[in-house]
Amino acid sequence: MEQQVRAVDPVTQEIIQGKLLSMVDEMGIVMARTSMSPVIYEVLDFACGICTRDCDLIAQTNGITLFTGTFATQVRSLVERFADDMAPGDVLVTNDPYAGGTHSCDLAIMRPIFAEGRIIAFAINVAHWLDVGGAVPGSLPPDASSVFQEGLRLPCVRIARDDKLLPDMVRIISENVRLPEVALGDLNAQLATVRIAERRILEMVEKYGAATVQDAFDHLLDVSERRSQDVITALPDGTYEATDIIDGDGISTDPIEVKVAIRIAGGRMEVDFTGCPPAAAGPINCARGALSSAVKTIFKALVAPQEPSNEGWFRPLSVIAPDGTVFTAQKPSPTGWYYEGSVHASELVWKALAPLMPERFSAGSYSSLCVTYINGRTADGEEFIHIEPQHGGWGGAPGRDGASAVIALTDGDTYNYSVELIEAKFPLHVRRYALNVEGGAGAGQWRGGFGVVREYEILSGEADIHSGFGRSRTPPWGMDGGGSGSLNRLDVVDQETANTVTYGRLSHRRVVKGDLLRIATGGGGGWGDPAMRSRDAIAEDIRSGYISAERAASEYNHRGTATK
Amino acid sequence: MIRLATDVGGTFTDLVGYDEKTGKVFTSKSLTTPQDQSIGVLDVIDRAESASGLDTDKVRFFAHGGTTVINAITERKGVRTALVTTAGFRDVLEIGRGNRPDLYNLQFHSPEPFIPRKLRTEVRERVGADGRVIEPLNEDDVREAARLFLEEGVEAVAVIFLHSYAHPDHEKRCAELLRDLLPDVTVCASYEISRQWREYERTNTVALNAYVQPIIQRYFANLEKALAAKGVYSAYYAMLSNGGVATFSQAVASPLTLVESGPSGGAAGAARIGAILGERDVLYLDVGGTTAKCTLIRDGKPNLDAEYKLEWARTFPGYPVQVPVVDIVEIGSGGGSIAWIDAAGGLRVGPKSAGSAPGPACYGLGGTEPTVTDAKVAIGLLDPAAFAEGAMTLDVELAQQAIAGLAGPLGLSVDDVAQAIIDVAESNMINALKLVTVQRGHDPRDLALVVSGGAGPMLGARLGRELNAKSIIIPPHSGIFSAWGMLAAHPRADIRKTWFSPLVASSLGELAKLFTDMEGEALSYFDRDNTDGVTFSYTVEMRYHGQEHSVSTRFTPSMQLVDFAEAFHSAHETAYSFRLPDARIEVTNLHLQAEIAGNVIDCPPIDNDGRTVAKARKGERKVYFGNDGGWKSCAVYDRNGLPCGERLSGPLLVEEPTTTTLVHAGQVLEVTDRGIMVITEEVR
């Protein structure tokens, strides 16, 4: 290819980039506002994006980080399968975890956009469907042993032609999922987003011409690549390693030891997961697409946390891992709770790189989304399912204590549920929603932030619960001499016997009226030697009730009580 | 009788007076006095008296917009405030919503609460979602809290209990006890400010309200005293964030309603201009020195933002407040915004601004970075000799020098860089304007674009063309339009109430009854015993069962269920492009808008006698249009001399003391009989 001076003037470049962002924003607004699933409108478990005709991500809206790096691979696998068999108005779909996807619940739909007779871009949308069939409502059995228990799979097939859903596909979906109205409602919302993307891209092409738009895309990718490379080049060459433990796979509680070796040389970064154990029996595995996304999340945090995402940033990065490991699961390994595994891939990279650029990192966090499912019947006999991720403590960082009660790395713009709304909607009484100060946080010059405690009293006759709490045995790591954080736990208190049982990943338990669920998330790790913590900060923590005088004495060797 | 408005902005305090009998409009401007804004208010009145003969004896209505509340919050200069909550929930304020919009920032923190943990106390009490008392208020706990607050020397206390929107008695009793025990302390209970659910948002609302209340109380007391000393004896009104006004004492009771009073004045003004022209749906853009703000006006009223957040940014959750605020999208692109080259080699404009000191390079006050205003001078849009009523001469060379710094890296001529700076600034504004229109389901082709602000009218014509707006409207007094708009505002109350229920036949009667109660609240707020002269409008927020976000639907007490349901389906379709005819409908919130009708400012008819196009013509100026024709000669007109009814084809410039309007080739300018300028595309 011949090298041109610069095909697009910088002003048009800037304006096209602005339009790309406003385009993906518009896709996101339509999705969040019209969806029927709380997991989409409340947790924002979806993402929208545009890829170039070469399948490179060029713009993305993210509600959560899990989809940071999945689009390019998903589009590529669809394009490989359909090649020339694509026409304007086609929409293709995939939820195959082994072809760039995540888990069966995440449906990616893709629309090729044609201009001047050829493809100029692809619009893509991925959203978590509430249910895609399978062994349990919600399609995520915490003890699944194969992907066939995790619901319907639509691996790279056509779902619409001429902008109309294919009736056969609609029938397959409605007969295979538990809540077809919700599923088709969300599918319609997804289709609307890629339709809007097509309209906006074509407006752009009409104004600037296909060649200019294409050149602007290329330029954006190249510039991002160069900037990313500059950051990597500035880091000291070398190999950086980290190890960690995943607390059980949902079937057994056996520890799963994972590790990473990161090689930085010549402005490139190679992230190598060789040596990680084979895929687990339970559903905390992730496949290669989710692994790559998990690594890209931290890579982005390192090179350009606030810049709009595109594939260019990731060009200096390569991810190496043999097939069939816990991070590169293959069919038919279950991947339903993949984010409970993939977050550890992120954290390994985070832990290995944190000492290199402390201004971008913090110590370990509570990590696990600690999702709880409560389902039963309301007083009117109507079935309810309450699905809730929890917020928790993040690690300290040089210059500042860790953040309390924010959502785990895998999510992002995810809100907690309002107590007043929950009590109006479900037969649940919230006894307490507070910082988990009694659980504590990692000591350090900069201590960890605190998790939360949420207590639910069951008001319905009976209900069923299941949960997926990671970091229930191995606490968040401290950094640079800081102490470990604290554990996530789900306590169930039997109202009759006052007997308490503590769980992490729980596949099923029946509870009855009056029983209490105490969800407690952990505090983050500390950064720096606790002996270096300022005495004033310790006294202020005691005065604010963040730590007790006893704990101050044992963790910081602090004598005396709070002073005014 | 004269109606007078003063608007305190970051740099200037503006005044507009309107003599209802003669239609005469008084204007003046003076510097804002940040320590005590009331000094600047008196200054600006003095100037109006001496320069344009304003007679303060004749003032019967005084409206005031200021930044005291927003400043106390942004500068964290509120009073030492404590919080009382339901036992088990004192950390709700600190936990917030826990979202992390700055996705890749591994050092992200939620917004710091305005009340620290040691000043947050719990008392035993509990009410259920249905308003039933589960546990009575423990008054000993309240007394204990009062002792702590006394010891801590707090100046204000906020009280928030769960589900108080459904049953406020516990909050009421707790506040009463605290007021008895702490007579020198300001006490606010959440139900007094908000009757809506979502405990974090309501807690934050009452906390911020308490935090600023003593400050605004002192400020209004000072201002009243000063105005009285000046001889302005009239009803004193404060501009609210909802596009209406309230008496000073009403505003003091709920000071958070003043957070966005300036921009809300502009929105009220845009709605008024729309009304004069018969345009019910208006898109309003105000371009100031550092930011541009857009607002949508539907059916004659500014849209309200139900989820307003202070200090919100793309990467920061901000502080949600449950008070009615005009829905404003604000971006960091104004006249003073600085153009720069980012790490990717792209040209960017803003959000950094040169402000008023040193200001744009062309001010000659030491600024060296190129701004949007410099670009305008360089391409001939602004007359360097006639800036700010001739108070300042702009230096074209300094502007060009500043811009030249970017020419090398961009590989463009100075003229082209200047044009590019304006292109990028406009593109930012287009994206913001689309956010309040297209992205919320409104078609700009149905909207008139009203553009104000010193820096707006020279950009408006092209923005309107790009958006396909119906017409572009440049109101009079564009440079002090917020103050003008304050004289268009009515006394207004917005009462919102959470009421969660499925929509069934019996709901309509219940809704009507709830609205009647709310009307009673509005009347007692206005201190009236009957509804004479008060207009009410009723909105119900509803959603499909299973959804989270609600859509507003107009309600009238005589409505049938089927019609009301249809109105909702159709509102949902407009907003989100589809309807679900078989889905169940749920009511979530009620919203009553009460307004007291009265006289407002008008645009007096212009005296066309002796006005001719030829006489209004001041000369010609060359303006650079970049790819669109390069340097072209444009006729320059004096706005105050233009006759009404004539159609003038662009390109042309219209100058007035506070701003300049540019009309492009292919567009036509017409001045209405009331002096409003309307720009439309030439029909080909």
Automatic annotation (TrEMBL), chain B:
Gene Ontology MF terms: N-methylhydantoinase (ATP-hydrolyzing) activity
Stretches assigned to the Hydantoinase A/oxoprolinase domain: 202-494
Enzyme Commission designation: 3.5.2.14
Domain Hydantoinase/oxoprolinase N-terminal positions: 4-180
Domain Acetophenone carboxylase-like C-terminal stretches: 510-668
Coiled coil: none
Keywords: Hydrolase
Domain of life, per lineage: Bacteria
InterPro entries listed in its UniProt record: ACX-like_C, ATPase_NBD, Hydant_A_N, Hydantoinase_A, Oxoprolinase-like
Pfam families: Hydant_A_C (PF19278), Hydant_A_N (PF05378), Hydantoinase_A (PF01968)
Protein name: N-methylhydantoinase A
